[in-house]
Amino acid sequence: MLTISPIPAFSDNYIWHLQQGGDHWVVDPGDARPVFDALDDKPLSGILITHHHPDHTGGIAELHRHYGCPVYGPGSIEGVTEPLANGDQREILGQPMQVMDVPGHTLDHLALLIEEPGSNGTPQLHLFCGDTLFAAGCGRLFEGTPVQMYQSLSKLAALPPETRVYCAHEYTLANLHFAEAVEPGNAAIRNRIAESEKLRADDRATLPSTIGEELATNPFLRCHIPGVARRAANHGANGGTEDSDEVEVFARLRRWKDKF
Ligand SMILES: [Zn+2]
């Protein structure tokens, strides 16, 4: 059985720690020290990387030097030993892993989908999406266009609703407050704020979430909802004309959130 737990790093990053039997992998180790602490004396079998930002890659060199383990990720990143590209299938921890490119936050950004056989015959999907899809939010557009990011998010939104979503930052509550400003009448958002506040009060991660939860509460996955389009228009930099084009709604929401 695959266990997945967050290793907190910096002020709000999570390095996801995957464990199956004696096999240990980490995703996006921005810092080596918390990984050494979490593993104690156990060996690291491999590293997965979603994109090139230093808070996701800063620990690669030290961990690779110490454990000599393979590093899977975008081929342009220094220290990656197993370059991945869109459509690749690999086996990680004995489970199939599918690679999707999700440009927008950065141009090299990958999402990694691990399929674990379920007890009832339905596989459990685990999505490692770095800084592309956040709980109730999405990453900033540092390198890509709104069209690219919207297409990337749409790809992730199309995964089965039970898919577990492991993002790389604890931004959930701040994102939910923005979501509530976009959709003040959305009860799912209100409920999620209450649940997340409880978890944070106990110093627990609000993650993973699921694609189903994101579809119900994440404004960036709800650009097709007329109420969201209307609110985006009222706050969009281009003035108050409602636009039914989902990419334009997305772009307006992203600009609004940048200043929220
Ligand atoms: Zn990033």
From TrEMBL:
<dbReference type="Pfam" id="PF00753">
    <property type="entry name" value="Lactamase_B"/>
</dbReference>
<feature type="binding site">
    <location>
        <position position="169"/>
    </location>
    <ligand>
        <name>Zn(2+) 2</name>
    </ligand>
</feature>
<dbReference type="InterPro" id="IPR050110">
    <property type="entry name" value="Glyoxalase_II_hydrolase"/>
</dbReference>
<dbReference type="Pfam" id="PF16123">
    <property type="entry name" value="HAGH_C"/>
</dbReference>
<dbReference type="InterPro" id="IPR001279">
    <property type="entry name" value="Metallo-B-lactamas"/>
</dbReference>
<dbReference type="InterPro" id="IPR017782">
    <property type="entry name" value="Hydroxyacylglutathione_Hdrlase"/>
</dbReference>
<feature type="binding site">
    <location>
        <position position="131"/>
    </location>
    <ligand>
        <name>Zn(2+) 2</name>
    </ligand>
</feature>
<keyword id="KW-0378">Hydrolase</keyword>
<dbReference type="GO" id="GO:0004416">
    <property type="term" value="F:hydroxyacylglutathione hydrolase activity"/>
</dbReference>
<dbReference type="InterPro" id="IPR035680">
    <property type="entry name" value="Clx_II_MBL"/>
</dbReference>
<keyword id="KW-0862">Zinc</keyword>
<feature type="binding site">
    <location>
        <position position="131"/>
    </location>
    <ligand>
        <name>Zn(2+) 1</name>
    </ligand>
</feature>
<feature type="domain" description="Metallo-beta-lactamase">
    <location>
        <begin position="12"/>
        <end position="169"/>
    </location>
</feature>
<feature type="binding site">
    <location>
        <position position="105"/>
    </location>
    <ligand>
        <name>Zn(2+) 1</name>
    </ligand>
</feature>
<feature type="binding site">
    <location>
        <position position="51"/>
    </location>
    <ligand>
        <name>Zn(2+) 1</name>
    </ligand>
</feature>
<feature type="binding site">
    <location>
        <position position="55"/>
    </location>
    <ligand>
        <name>Zn(2+) 2</name>
    </ligand>
</feature>
<feature type="binding site">
    <location>
        <position position="53"/>
    </location>
    <ligand>
        <name>Zn(2+) 1</name>
    </ligand>
</feature>
<protein>
    <recommendedName>
        <fullName>Hydroxyacylglutathione hydrolase</fullName>
        <ecNumber>3.1.2.6</ecNumber>
    </recommendedName>
</protein>
<comment type="subunit">
    <text>Monomer.</text>
</comment>
<comment type="pathway">
    <text>Secondary metabolite metabolism; methylglyoxal degradation; (R)-lactate from methylglyoxal: step 2/2.</text>
</comment>
<dbReference type="InterPro" id="IPR036866">
    <property type="entry name" value="RibonucZ/Hydroxyglut_hydro"/>
</dbReference>
<comment type="similarity">
    <text>Belongs to the metallo-beta-lactamase superfamily. Glyoxalase II family.</text>
</comment>
<feature type="binding site">
    <location>
        <position position="56"/>
    </location>
    <ligand>
        <name>Zn(2+) 2</name>
    </ligand>
</feature>
<dbReference type="InterPro" id="IPR032282">
    <property type="entry name" value="HAGH_C"/>
</dbReference>
<comment type="function">
    <text>Thiolesterase that catalyzes the hydrolysis of S-D-lactoyl-glutathione to form glutathione and D-lactic acid.</text>
</comment>
<keyword id="KW-0479">Metal-binding</keyword>
